[in-house]
Design brief:
Blueprint (H helix, E strand, L loop, with lengths): L1 H14 L1 H28 L12 E7 L5 E2 L1 E2 L7 H4 L3 E9 L7 E4 L4 E3 L3 E4 L3 H4 L4 E4 L10 E5 H8 L8 E6 L2 E11 L12 E4 H11 L4 H4 L7 E7 L5 H15 L7 E6 H4 L16 H30 L3 H9 L4 H34 L14 H28 L3 H5 L11 H32 L9 E5 L8 H8 L5 E7 L11 E4 L8 E8 L3 H5 L3 E4 L13 E5 H7 L8 E2 L2 E7 L14 E5 L6 E6 L4 H15 L8 E2 H8 L1 H35 L1 H9 L4 H35 L10 H28 L2 H5 L3
Parallel strand pairs: 7-12, 9-11, 18-23, 20-22
Antiparallel strand pairs: 1-2, 1-13, 1-14, 3-13, 4-7, 4-13, 5-6, 5-10, 8-11, 9-12, 10-11, 15-24, 15-25, 16-24, 17-18, 19-22, 20-23, 21-22
Helix pairs in contact: 1-12, 2-10, 2-12, 2-13, 2-21, 10-13, 10-15, 10-21, 12-13, 15-21, 15-23, 15-24, 16-19, 21-24, 23-24
Length: 794
């Protein structure tokens, strides 16, 4: 029976080429889009599954009396665990270079390399994280003060792989140089590890770094007040963590000073990627669970559109198969046999789309792998999951798409089937619901896409933002401060630079918030003001006007005066009618600037004090002439190499930094736009196929109407009015649903657009026009035909 069903299905598919092409194209697009997002979801949920002991690994989390949770704690915490908690087998203390403002560099002779992912840790880290050694290994005292371990990729990048064990590696931290011994080379951690480490040194070396460069942190490092050391624990198999937390808490309370009120909890390795967004001092890679849910739902809706598209066409085309079903029933075919036949046909057609979808996925994969934070790279370690999910989804779509048609056709009365009595006009059926649902999804996606685009456009062109044109950013390192005046004098000689300045912000837009409390005279409650160190011409370079007052006086520091400029919000917060000349925290206000957002529009503009301090500059800000971009970069690079011959020149453009600040939003609107286009294509193909079938079934009716004098406009309206009604119903549902979804999304922004009724009206008109044009294309073909040809054989 199965063999016969396969042969019959194959013949049916081949003999109906138009419908097969429409169905397969819709399924290919739907499956490809779903596979892209499925790969993303699988990859995102695979983090930290690479460790053999993943079910036993936990990270300590400390929560203070104010409810602030941090992954960093005291190095002394390790001494309490193994001796008091027998279930705790191993404890690793780890400090990431991300916790320190001091960046480590490798001096490789004629060039300095940034040591990204530099980690200070205990010896047990190699065993806990399954790090295998390519060369060298753990020896007694391996992580002593001058021992260093490097990953294969770091060795290849810095030394081109040509190193020997126990050779000297010169590290630079601030103004200090450290001679290390290369004790081992280990394999890179897997791509799905939240911990990234290319360099590992011991905690004794970390303490030396603190003593030489940050002596103020040494006392905290040797006390219970520290918050930089991350503690990783390995527990015995089957340990119930919740049951031992009270025991650990009691041990902690008995050993910590009474004024240190800290609660302990543990986070499993499997939760680190998605559940660490609210933790302070988190140095692990984190993900966005909302993005996984959002893209999974988008994939579901696109698959639903493709499945509905197939169901609509199959249901409509089933009217042409009534006689076939009637004959087969008369000849003894059972309902079960007919259902199996139709389901096999549906599954076979769906699996025809599978290889084409995989081929498209292979073409798409390398082109979107480079998207920041949203990679869909197909990793070999997940290949079995990919194949099983792809095949499973294809099978489910094939069965569900054909189920309704199979049940409907198998239940036909053979007498009515042979008389070709099909759908009663005006009678409700699932096809109408399917069409309405397709239009609802398409319209909702279009409204959401335009609203998201409007918000992102506001992020770029809002009058609260900095003008993004012709601004270059050059980051400075801590040891470069002493040469800041030298690089300034070099920049002054470049004619195509309009103005330049500097700020203490490490990036622009800035991710750091330095909000401090200030006590004003005659006020018990402190006011909170954000503080930013800047140089003269900061506002001129960024195009921010001063509403009152003047710019900084460069000779003020020589006179012992410390000047600052506040923004409009700062003036409101201080509540002075004329803030000029007022002193706050021993600084004199000399100007008031227009409010501008140097973070991003997710955050409210704080009351801000811009302090004149050219000795604390982290970033050069350069405004250059239009069209002279490449020349200016080349000249600045020459100036940089003259002042800092051993430090690599790095730069970025503010417009790109601004785009990077909204990476998540840009990726989201791109994804929604792609899915909106796919929705239009799939819905359009479904409507075209349906119009093709309806026109075939109504050819004689149209001919009779033309003979009796009906105009072309009347016939077109009759053909379209039902679909226009579906569009109106879809709009009634889609508008409030889209409005609610966009309200939820826009809550992430402090400054946001209002959802425009004009956008909704435009979207409804666009979808209505789209539906009308597709139906009109087929209707005009029928109208151009001679009615005699349709009636002469009646």
């Amino acid at each position: 029976m199965i063999r016969n069903a396969l042969i019959t299905s194959y013949r049916t598919i081949v003999n109906n080429k138009t419908y097969t092409i429409i169905n397969v194209t819709g399924l290919v697009l739907g499956l490809t889009a779903a596979f892209v997002l499925l790969v993303f979801a699988i990859n995102e949920t695979s983090f930290n599954t690479c460790f053999t002991k993943k079910d036993r690994l936990y990270r300590a989390v400390f929560t203070d009396s104010k409810g602030l949770s941090t992954t960093g704690g005291s190095r002394l915490f390790k001494s309490l665990l193994p001796c008091n908690i027998p279930e705790c087998k191993k404890v690793v203390r780890m400090v990431s270079e991300q916790q320190l403002s001091l960046k480590m560099k490798v001096d490789a002779g004629n060039k300095l390399y940034d040591c990204k992912n530099f980690v200070y840790a205990d010896t047990e880290i190699f065993n806990m994280l399954d790090l295998r050694f390519v060369r060298g290994g753990i020896q007694p005292g391996s992580l002593k003060q001058n021992s260093l371990f490097m990953s294969e990729s770091a060795v290849k990048k810095i030394y081109n792989g040509e190193v020997r064990l126990f050779q000297k590696v010169s590290l630079m931290a601030g103004k200090n140089r450290y001679e290390m011994i290369l004790a081992g080379i280990y394999t890179d951690l897997p791509w799905n590890s939240t911990i990234n480490t290319d360099f590992i040194a011991g905690l004794p070396f970390y303490e030396t770094i603190l003593k030489d460069n940050m002596p103020e942190l040494v006392a905290g490092y040797n006390s219970w007040d520290d918050f930089l050391v991350e503690t990783l624990c390995e527990f015995s198999p089957g340990t119930e963590i919740r049951s031992i937390i009270p025991v650990i808490q009691e041990v902690l309370n008995n050993n910590v000073k009474k004024d240190v009120n800290v609660k302990i909890s543990f986070q499993s390795f499997g939760d680190i990627y998605f559940e660490s967004g609210d933790f302070a001092n988190n140095s692990n890679l984190t993900g966005n669970k909302l993005a996984v849910y959002t893209y999974s739902w988008l994939a579901f809706f696109i698959l639903l559109l493709a499945g509905i598209n197939y169901a609509i066409l199959s249901t409509a085309r089933s009217a042409l198969r009534f006689k076939e079903v009637g004959v087969r029933k008369v000849l003894g075919a059972t309902k079960r046999e007919l259902r199996i036949q139709i389901l096999i046909e549906s599954v076979l057609l769906t699996f025809m789309a599978l290889p084409l979808a995989l081929f498209l996925l292979g073409l798409i994969d390398p082109r979107i792998t480079g998207l920041p934070d949203y990679t869909i790279t197909m990793h070999a370690s997940n290949m079995l999951k990919y194949i099983l999910f792809f095949a499973g989804i294809t099978l489910v779509i094939g069965i569900l798409s054909g189920l309704y048609v199979a049940v409907y056709l198998a239940g036909l009365n053979p007498v009515n089937a042979l008389k070709a009595r099909y759908f009663t006009p005006g009678k409700f059926n699932l096809s109408k619901l399917f069409i309405g649902f397709q239009l609802f999804i398409t319209l909702s996606l279009l409204i959401c896409m335009l609203t998201i685009y409007s918000q992102i456009r506001m992020c770029y062109v809002s009058n609260l933002s900095i003008s993004r044109q012709n601004i270059l950013l050059v980051p400075l390192k801590n040891h470069d401060f002493k040469k800041y005046s030298a690089i300034k004098s070099k920049l002054a000689g470049i004619p195509d630079i309009i103005s330049f300045s500097g700020s203490g912000l490490f990036s622009l837009p800035s991710k750091d918030f330095n909000v401090l409390p200030f006590h004003l005279p005659n006020s018990q409650e402190p006011v909170h003001i954000e503080c930013v160190n800047v140089d003269r011409d900061f506002f001129k370079t960024l195009g921010i006007p001063l509403i009152r007052g003047r710019d900084f006086d460069t000779s003020s520091m020589e006179r012992g005066d410390i000047e600052c400029i506040i923004n409009e919000e700062g003036a409101k917060t201080l509540k002075y009618k004329n803030p000029l000349g007022v002193n706050i925290d021993q600084t004199k206000i000399v100007g008031v600037s227009r409010d501008f957002n140097f973070h991003n529009l997710h955050y409210k503009i704080n009351a801000t004090r811009f302090l004149y301090n050219p000795f604390a500059i982290s970033t050069l800000i350069i405004h250059y002439k239009q069209g002279r971009e490449s020349f200016v970069v080349e000249e600045i690079k020459k100036a940089w190499e003259a002042v800092y011959p051993k430090s690599p020149f790095d730069h970025s453009f503010f417009r790109q930094e601004l785009r990077d600040a909204y990476t998540k939003e840009n990726n989201f609107v791109t994804a929604v736009a792609v899915f909106t286009i796919l929705a239009f294509i799939i819905t359009g193909m479904g409507l075209f196929g349906l119009a093709l079938l309806i026109s075939e079934r109504k050819t004689k009716e149209t001919a009779i109407r033309k003979v009796f004098g009906a105009s072309n406009v009347q016939i077109i309206f009759r053909m379209q009015r039902e679909f226009l009604l579906y569009t109106a119903i879809a709009a009634i549902v889609a508008i409030p649903v889209s409005w609610l979804l966009m309200q939820l999304w826009l809550k992430e922004f402090y400054y946001r657009v209002n959802i425009s009724p004009l956008i909704m009206i435009m979207c409804v008109l666009a979808v209505t026009t789209f539906v009308s044009v597709i139906l009109l294309m087929r209707t005009l073909k029928v109208l151009r035909s001679n009615p005699i040809n349709a009636l002469k054989y009646e």
